[in-house]
Write a structure and sequence with these properties.
Blueprint: H1 2-30, H2 47-54, E1 60-64, H3 72-91, E2 96-100, H4 109-121, E3 127-132, E4 138-143, E5 146-151, E6 154-159, H5 169-178, H6 180-192, E7 198-203, H7 214-221, E8 225-230, E9 243-247, H8 255-266, E10 270-274, E11 278-279, H9 282-288, E12 290-295, H10 301-307, E13 309-311, E14 314-318, E15 321-327, E16 337-350, E17 362-363, E18 370-372, E19 377-386, E20 391-395, E21 398-401, E22 420-430, E23 452-461, E24 471-474, E25 477-480, H11 495-507, H12 527-530, H13 534-564
Parallel strand pairs: 1-2, 7-8, 7-9, 9-10, 10-23
Antiparallel strand pairs: 1-5, 3-4, 5-6, 11-12, 12-21, 13-18, 14-20, 15-16, 16-17, 16-19, 19-22, 22-23, 24-25
Helix pairs in contact: 3-5, 7-11
């Protein structure tokens, strides 16, 4: 009888356990949760990211080219990428699939080069990594820290690696890990979206011509549909565009075009102004080594002032600058061009804002200072780009002499700090044409005139060369070069990223740009403190875990004997 009861009891317990397991399995298949115990919420996706992943209509395939024998810094980036893609896969309902590929696993050198050239053509940027191997020698390898995202046969590249020359390799890799969620989800959203926003480059006021902004256009074309055209005094011509770019106008704006731009802003449109208030003829400077800098009147200061910003007619010199080629050969000898630092070409730093956070230095030419003023409406103003702590202001008109290049730049002469060059204006603007006779400018717009704007954004930059790429003439054709690439030093600056980020921020309606403010702190060992006690810390790291396991085993054995040793 006791045996029968015991069997029934065991069977009942087994059935209860099976029911609990089945119920737990059912609950876990329909509902899940994540616990992120890190202080910076490293493993927590934003609500905007979750929404995009939950609404994926079809499968997304991602091939990550970050596998194989990698230096430790890239292995950490690989781990971070895998972790975030695992989270993406869960929140997408398994619609996101990914794999890691080693582009260097081919033993045949020709086949390996073909793969690398193909990845270059697809838009992935390589990195030449060097590290010390286990035998004490130096290893070198070309790594493609990026991925290709494929959706319905459409493919887009994602480059992970930040390469700011002012930061260490560890800091660059950490910033790359910080930006993974934004870089990946922004491409996934773009490639899977049914509708594409349109942006326009304005013409008709002497703006940069198409080849000079071709590389920026290519970068923006991954996210938006790009047009070019004139306003021509046509009301409503900009209504279908989410943002417009005004890149280095050189001719005066008439009142009709200003009014149309004003009403476009009032109706929620975004504007990116890239303005050179001072004209400097580079051809004259390179030919005769001297030219005059003079004020360029564009007839836009009045509307910008009412929006809350003033572009000053001056030039900035900065110790932190790029180079210019100067003929250093003696008179009568063949020209010999030497790259020399040119204080009129400042390298700008980004502020801690979604547009400019973790941005490489931005290369400029003949840049001016911005001021913010009260303006009309309720507008928040945020500076985006600034000079170094060692700058100064030069008034205009003024003579620019190329012979000054390479002159000693002392900190005592450059006593201005962090001069602002780019500013973001966001909020509710008041029309610059409020209380004016609209009928005398454009009668057709009078009935629909908006005196106050919806909540919108505008960015003003006091330098247009930020968006201008160099152009090489070959066979009678203009071939645009890479934006931000210095032809003298081959250094790649953050110009292209700034333009793309600026337009993305102007248009962003989902809050994805806020992901660029995510920060993950680097927790490194203090090398100074461990320098003289390496053996001690090695012993702690190797022997202490073994001691803890052994102690736990001895303690468990002792407690077990004490509990059951008295049973006869």
């Amino acid at each position: 009888m006791n045996t029968r009861k015991r069997i029934i009891q065991n069977v009942s317990q087994l059935l209860v356990a099976l029911v609990i397991i089945a119920l737990a399995g059912f609950i876990s298949s329909t509902w899940f949760f994540r616990l992120d115990l890190t202080s910076e919420k490293k493993y927590t996706l934003s609500d905007a990211t979750k929404k995009i992943l939950n609404e994926l209509p079809e499968d997304v395939y991602i091939r990550v080219y970050l596998d194989g024998d990698l230096p430790i810094g890239f292995r950490k980036l690989q781990t971070s990428t895998r972790e975030i893609l695992e989270e993406f896969r869960v929140y997408s309902g398994r619609k996101l699939k990914f794999e890691f590929i080693n582009p260097s696993e081919e033993k045949d050198e020709d086949a390996r080069k073909m793969i690398q050239e193909l990845l270059l053509e697809k838009g992935l940027r390589p990195s030449n990594a060097q590290w010390r191997d286990r035998e004490g020698g130096m290893s070198q390898k070309i790594i493609f820290p990026g991925a290709l995202v494929n959706y319905k046969g459409i493919e887009m590249p994602v480059n992970f690696l930040r390469n700011n020359p002012g930061l260490s390799g560890t800091e660059n890799l950490n910033q790359s890990a910080e930006g993974l969620e934004y870089e990946l989800i922004s491409v996934i959203r773009t490639i899977s979206s049914d509708s594409i926003y349109k942006i326009a480059f304005l013409e008709g006021h002497g703006e940069l011509y198409d080849p000079e902004v071709a590389d920026a256009s290519r970068a923006l074309a991954q996210y938006y549909s790009i047009d070019r055209g004139q306003i021509g005094g046509n009301p409503g011509i900009l209504d279908n565009y989410a943002a417009v770019i005004i890149a280095r106008p050189t001719e005066r704006f008439n009142e009709e075009d200003k009014l149309i731009l004003d009403q476009y802003l009032m109706n929620g449109g975004g504007i990116l102004w890239l303005v050179d208030p001072v004209a400097v003829d580079m051809d004259s400077l390179m030919y005769s080594s001297i030219t005059t800098a003079y004020i360029r009147d564009l007839n836009i200061n009045d509307i910008l002032f009412k929006y809350g910003v003033r572009i000053n007619a001056n030039l900035i010199q900065d110790i932190q600058c790029s180079f210019i080629p100067v003929n250093t050969a003696l008179v009568g000898n063949s020209p010999q061009y030497t790259p020399l630092p040119w204080a009129y070409f400042p390298l700008l730093q980004g502020e801690n804002h979604p547009v400019t956070r973790n941005l490489n230095l931005v290369r400029t030419e003949f840049v001016s200072v911005l001021d913010t003023v009260k303006g009309n409406g309720r507008i928040d103003k945020t500076f985006l780009l600034k000079t170094s702590p060692y700058s100064r202001i030069v008034g205009v008109p003024n003579l620019i002499n190329l012979r000054d290049a390479g002159s000693p730049l002392t900190e005592d002469d450059f006593n201005r700090q962090h001069l602002p060059v780019a500013v973001l204006l966001e909020g509710e603007f008041e029309s610059a044409f409020k209380n004016r006779m609209i009928s005398g400018i454009l009668p057709a717009i009078e009935d629909d005139f908006q005196a106050h704007s919806l909540s919108t954004r505008m960015i003003v930059v006091a330098d247009a060369d930020i968006i201008r790429n160099d152009v090489r003439i070959q066979g009678g054709q203009a071939i645009p070069l890479e934006l931000g690439r210095d032809r003298l030093t081959q250094e790649l600056y953050g110009n292209k990223d700034f333009i793309v980020n600026a337009v993305n921020y102007l248009i962003d309606d989902s809050g994805l740009m806020e992901l660029r403010t995510r920060e993950m702190r680097i927790r490194l060992l203090d090398r100074a403190r461990i320098g003289g006690s390496q053996i001690f810390w090695k012993l702690i790291n190797t022997l202490l875990p073994l001691f803890i396991v052994a102690f736990a085993g001895i303690l468990a054995t002792y407690l077990r004997k004490r509990k059951y040793g008295r049973i006869v």
